[in-house]
Amino acid sequence: MNLEDLRTDIDRIDEKLLSLLEERMEKALLTKVFKEGRVTDSRREAEVIERARRPLRRLVSPDFAESIWKTLMVEGRSIQEKNLRTIGFQGEHGAWSEVAAKAWNRDFASIPCREFVDVFDAVRDGNFDFGIVPVENTLGGLVGPVNAILVYADLRIVAAVDLPVTHCLLALPGTDYREIRQAYSHTQALTQCRGFLSRNHLEPVQYYDTAGAAKMIAEERPRDTAAVASRYAGELYGLEIIKEGIQDAEVNRTRFFVLAREDAERPAGAGLRQKCSAVFNATDRAGGLFGVLEVFAKADINLTRIESVPDKPGDYAIFIDFEGDENEARVAEAIAEASSLTRGFRILGCYDETRVGA
Asked: Which of 36, 64, 162, 164 has the fewest CB atoms within 10 Å, counting from its CB?
């Protein structure tokens, strides 16, 4: 052990502390949902301070611990008083879903979730105001788990974001790129960058999340390892961009849906929405799906997405997106006619779509 080793350990601990502080503030923000409008809970705060002052620690004095926790609680109350709206996403901070959330509205507090279903559940239960999930990628196609949940989720699509996915090779500041041997990331990101990794003799190592890989490197600080993730993840975790735009395909875009319990309020004079999404099960009779598509074609309504996902054994749920607003007469008539030709026809939402970049 030497001074450099100790400083490396301190840097690693500092990254974890910052991550935990961020998580604590997120939890403090979410507790307001359950406090019935109250920000201060004196009894709870007294319990926290008492626990912080337990004389079991060797170097952290009770007074020092109390001062830290009091500062944390003051900051937590300040965040609660801002009445921030929340949007949940799957993954760690810096994930592409969070990038899409920021592209839609930078003022919302983005909250990470472990699984896609956790995003849906938290929005349904009123813990989050919104959720954002990926639904399709130009290279990987349909995001199956998300669409399978959408079939039965009692939520509304209130917006969509079409985002270019530009992967970066990220490493600790000062890393000699010639010493990098491994690249950690989600399997889809590694697949999208297969050519670059092969040309540079980098071993792809699967990780649960792109941003999670960046976070791991920032906290664990391995010297011969890089992450494949977003520029935002690199900035968030203090990593250096070794190379940007390492994906093999020139066009790599992901489309995201923003979800809420109810349709979003429209500003006065905002006009009609751009798109609608619907889901249904086709009937068993021959030409059932063609009949639905023909309804929209005759109404001169452009379909922008047709996808199917396995539903019950031997059955498929079919998703369609089409241009227009359900408040338009011709669209409303087409929806009514399509409903009569299918089982369980349901409008998931009408919304505007934000397209980021070219």
From this structure: 36
Cα–Cα dist 81/40, whole Å: 10
Q: Which of 161-175, 185-199, 235-249, 311-325 has the lowest mean pLDDT?
A: 311-325
Whether 283 sits among the annotated catalytic residues: the reply is: no
Q: How many CA atoms lie within 13 A of 229 on its CB side?
A: 38
The catalytically annotated residue of 128, 256, 319, 345 is 256
- Phi/psi for 152 (5° steps) reads -115, -5
Beta 253-260 vs 130-137: how paired, if at all?
A: antiparallel
> Which pairing describes strands 225-229 and 168-171: parallel, antiparallel, or unpaired?
antiparallel
Q: How far is CA 186 from CA 46, 143, 206, 249, in A?
A: 43, 14, 6, 17
CA distances from 143 to 139, 140, 148, 150, 184 (A): 11, 8, 9, 11, 21
CA 295 to chain centre: 35
Of residues 204 and 61, more confidently modeled: 204
E-state strands within the chain: 86-90, 109-113, 130-137, 141-142, 156-164, 168-171, 182-185, 203-206, 225-229, 240-244, 253-260, 275-282, 303-310, 316-323, 342-355
Contact status, residue 256 vs residue 98, Cβ threshold 8 Å: no
Map tokens 């926290």 to a residue.
Answer: 48
Annotation marks residue 128 as catalytic: no
16-27: pLDDT as tens digits: 888 899 999 999
Q: Which domains are delineated in the chain?
A: 3-81 (1.20.59.10), 86-164+253-355 (3.40.190.10), 168-244 (3.40.190.10)
Backbone angles phi, psi at 166, to 5 degrees: -115, 105
- Is the pLDDT at 345 greater than 70? The verdict is yes
State the pLDDT at residue 270. 67
Marked catalytic residue, from 254, 257, 296, 319: 254
Question: Could you report the per-residue pLDDT of 189-217, keeping only the tens digit for each?
Answer: 999 999 999 999 999 999 999 999 999 99
